Amino acid sequence: MSEPIPQLKSDPPLAGHPAESERRQPFKFQMIQRGDFIKPGCWHWRCRCEDGAGDVAYGYVQADSLGGAAAPETFEKDPL
């Protein structure tokens, strides 16, 4: 599972700040391993998260059972 995962919803563009909205890109999640069942249709996934600026972090995110639709607002970065 090394392909980017689509988001459940996207961030709204920032009004009045075109340079900021151009830099802002959606997060890309590379699912590594499915973890605990949370609720129907939702699992905790170990993942690699890359933001639009190219910063990479490892942690956990909630997504569907196949890791196909991640909820970026649920991303929890690994503690250092």
Supply the key terms.
80 residues, 8% helix, 46% strand
Description:
A four-stranded antiparallel sheet has the order 1-2-3-4, with no helix packed on it. The protein has one helix and four strands; from the N terminus they run H-E-E-E-E. The protein has one domain. Strand 2 and strand 3 form a beta hairpin. The chain has one helix at 18-23; strands at residues 28-39, 42-50, 56-63, 70-77. The longest helix has 6 residues, at 18-23. It is mostly beta strands.
Q: Can you count the beta strands?
A: 4
**Whole-angstrom Rg:** 13 Å
Low-pLDDT runs of 5+ residues are: 10-14, 16-23
Structural class: mainly beta
Sheet with most strands: strand arrangement: 1-2-3-4
Compute the average pLDDT: 79
Total helix count? Answer: 1
Percentage of β-strand residues: over 45%
Query: Level of helix content?
Result: under 10%
Main sheet properties: 4 strands, antiparallel
Compressed to H and E, one letter per element, the order equals: HEEEE
How would you describe the shape? globular
Distance between the termini: 25 Å
Number of domains: 1
